[in-house]
Amino acid sequence: MRLLTHNMLSCNIKGVSNGFPLRLEAEKWVEKEVELNADFLRGIFPKIEWKALAGAARALGYNELPDEADASMLDADDFLRRFHHALLELHVEEGALVCPETGRRFPINKGIPNMLLHEDEV
Amino acid sequence: MPRPEIQAPPEIFYNEAEARKYTTSSRIIEIQAKISERALELLALPNDGVPRLLLDIGCGSGLSGETLSENGHHWIGYDISQSMLDVALEREAEGDLLLADMGQGLGLRPGVIDGAISISAVQWLCYADKSSHEPRMRLKAFFGSLYRCLARGARAVLQLYAENINQSEMIMSYAMRAGFAGGVVVDWPHSSKARKAYLVLTCGPPSMQTSLPKGRGEDGEMCSDDDESGDDESQTVGIYDRNRPRKKLKVNKKGKGREWVLKKKEQMRRKGHDIPPDTKYTARKRKARF
Ligand SMILES: C[S@@+](CC[C@H](N)C(=O)[O-])C[C@H]1O[C@@H](n2cnc3c(N)ncnc32)[C@H](O)[C@@H]1O
């Protein structure tokens, strides 16, 4: 799972009103290089919750994202490179996503979060 | 073979053996790729070469997602079968995979997704596999969450195999209730095997963009032989309902024509069937009084 996906996921257990962001507990992660596409980054930027992205990146030991970001920064290559790296090149392999409201843990195995809800959570 | 949907729940039906069988069949790979390409075309993303963030719902072993990757898009795949996802990992699917049940809702933030496809999966929601399952509630949760996570104006294209007309109407009605506009595009409506139905849904108020494209082969044009001839393998992917009301199968005014009949007879002969010889009566038009 990349941080792009983490940034979109929200816990949908019945009754939870704010399931975002899921806290990232990472035990193992890997880096995979992919080509940078500035148009994609500019298009997705307005949809990204920046604080959640920066926080998740820190959980993976990547501290190069600023605490806050605005669209004007997309003109700087250096910023684009860091944004790209955090969003698309870091893959969480083992760990868990934790609901901020209920503390429910969704385990991540082989890079795949198990988001299946129990019957009483639907 | 009975429909997979009535044999077992999806996470049981798509066990390790089935997941492997599914993904090693070159015929299935080819069919799923063709359907996925068509679904991506029906998504009608802006033609600017910019990669988008898409969903592949019921992504299975990643066959449909591969088409999205080949076109440069990022995707998040949902599937309820661990075995199918394991094969997707082996095949190095490029999208992010989630072990999740679409009938429980997608669990995404609102308005963040640029488009969604689902290939041969959504009909599964019509079957109650557990005592707690209520298909209508599951359809509602699925379409509601799909509508919310899509950006305004974005589309979802769902290719599915409904068992009968009631099922497809039930699915459509929940899509509409969630707020979607759209309808069904049917490709190759005259062929029982190649026939494919796509729910093309648009999120947000109707606009010029919501007008439905035409299905392929609607005018009675025939699809290539390759699409039409099927062997047993295709049964695992497609469920071709022989009981579909006949009136649904609109036949071209002129009928299929002598040439088509001759070709079919020849094909059957090659397969070793005992076929009457061709004569001047073959595929002859009957008088209207019949
Ligand atoms: C015929 S396969 C198609 C897989 C893939 N889309 C392709 O084109 O090859 C149908 C898939 O839908 C999945 N599925 C069925 N019900 C589901 C549900 N409730 N939630 C998520 N996935 C489901 C099955 O596990 C299976 O992998």
From TrEMBL, chain A:
Lineage: Eukaryota, Viridiplantae, Streptophyta, Embryophyta, Tracheophyta
Assembly notes: Interacts with TRM9.
Transmembrane segments: none
Gene Ontology molecular functions: protein heterodimerization activity
UniProt family annotation: Belongs to the TRM112 family.
Domain of life: Eukaryota
Gene: LOC103711248
Alphabetized InterPro entries for the sequence: Trm112, Trm112-like
GO biological process: rRNA (guanine-N7)-methylation; tRNA methylation
Protein name: Multifunctional methyltransferase subunit TRM112 homolog A-like
Gene3D superfamilies, sorted: 2.20.25.10
TrEMBL record, chain B:
One Pfam assignment: Methyltransf_11
Compositional bias (Basic residues): 244-256
Assigned keywords, A-Z: Cytoplasm, Methyltransferase, Nucleus, S-adenosyl-L-methionine, Transferase
Cellular compartments annotated: Cytoplasm; Nucleus
Domain Methyltransferase type span(s) in chain numbering: 55-157
Ranges for domain 18S rRNA (guanine(1575)-N(7))-methyltransferase Bud23 C-terminal: 201-288
GO process terms (BP): rRNA (guanine-N7)-methylation
Domain of life: Eukaryota
GO MF annotation: an example: rRNA (guanine) methyltransferase activity
InterPro entries: Bud23-like (IPR039769), Bud23_C (IPR022238), Methyltransf_11 (IPR013216), SAM-dependent_MTases_sf (IPR029063)
Start and end residues of each stretch annotated as Disordered: 209-290
Gene Ontology CC annotation, any one: cytoplasm
Biased amino acid composition, Acidic residues: 220-234
Gene3D superfamilies linked to this entry: Vaccinia Virus protein VP39
Entry's family note: Belongs to the class I-like SAM-binding methyltransferase superfamily. BUD23/WBSCR22 family.
Name of the protein: 18S rRNA (Guanine-N(7))-methyltransferase RID2
Protein source organism: Phoenix dactylifera
Gene it is expressed from: LOC103715525
